[in-house]
Design brief:
Structural class: mainly alpha
Distance between the termini: 30 Å
Helix content: over 70%
Order of helices and strands: HHHHHHHHEEHH
Number of domains: 1
Length: 270
């Protein structure tokens, strides 16, 4: 690994860790475009680069989630009742995505899907539509289904689920700071189940670079994980200092930028 790549990965880890704590998105939606770019510079074929970026991004979330959720938990913001009821569906949905659909889809298709879905999520958050005051979270069966959708979609785009779970919880009248904190806690089961699937599904993928474990790029995982755990608690602290509307707008603007980049990559690769 060159010194330049090492520095780039450290900076990416520091930024993604902060955003993981701030927005509850696991940092994955920041990492996927950048890791795709880094792998392309290493000569990895475009479709494979997108898949490896998604898988590696998801693997780092196992570390940033633990770091950021600890900071949120100290402030009493995590809804552990929601974590317990959403997690089973998340694990099932994640395995279905990472072991099945992920391996079948082309990298360019995954990139386009990433861009479209993230753009939709950004619009919903930016408009700041108020939920009906009487709307509540669904019951056990509904949460199992919601968890399955969160895990499945997260597995296709390599994000910790915050871009789905945060809007879902706020739509059900969960306060934004609690939604962000709970999303950070949900990032660990999402990442763990998906990474297991990526490793198994990518064992025989052609063209894997040195240091790959299935679709996971281990050198990048090691550097980003070490850097991101340093800044995730700082992001969590900042999240509790920001007003609700500002936090939503920051979230939405970040998603628009990333959606645009990945749409470009996906369309260029077709």
């Amino acid at each position: 690994m060159s010194w330049l790549l090492l520095i780039e990965l450290v900076l990416l880890g520091l930024c993604s860790g902060f955003l993981a704590g701030l927005l509850g998105i696991g940092g994955g939606m920041v990492m996927v475009p950048f890791i795709t770019f880094f792998l392309s510079k290493q000569g990895v074929q475009a479709d494979l680069a997108v898949k490896m970026a998604i898988a590696t991004s998801m693997a780092t979330i196992m570390f940033t989630s633990l770091s950021s959720v600890r900071a949120h938990h100290r402030r009493g913001a995590v809804r552990w009742d929601l974590v317990r009821t959403l997690a089973p569906g998340i694990v099932i949905g994640s395995l279905l995505a990472s072991l099945g659909m992920f391996a079948l889809l082309k990298g360019s298709s995954l990139a386009i899907f990433f861009g479209l879905f993230v753009g939709f999520s950004a619009t919903q958050m930016f408009l700041d539509r108020k939920p009906q005051p009487t709307r509540q979270l669904p019951g056990t069966a509904g949460r199992l289904g919601a968890g399955g959708a969160i895990g499945f979609l997260s597995g296709l785009v390599g994000a910790g689920g915050g871009f789905i779970s945060v809007p879902f919880m706020t739509w059900c009248n969960v306060p934004i700071h609690s939604a962000v904190a709970t999303s950070a806690a949900l990032g660990f089961p999402i990442a763990l189940a998906n990474v297991a699937g990526y490793v198994v599904a990518g064992q025989d993928a052609p063209g894997l670079p040195a240091g790959a474990l299935g679709y996971v790029w281990l050198p990048a995982l090691a550097v980003i994980a070490c850097a991101s755990v340093l800044t995730a608690p700082l992001g969590a602290k900042a999240a509790h200092a920001l007003p609700v509307k500002s936090l939503k707008r920051v979230f939405a603007c970040l998603l628009y930028l990333l959606a645009g980049y990945m749409l470009y990559k996906g369309l260029a690769g077709r």
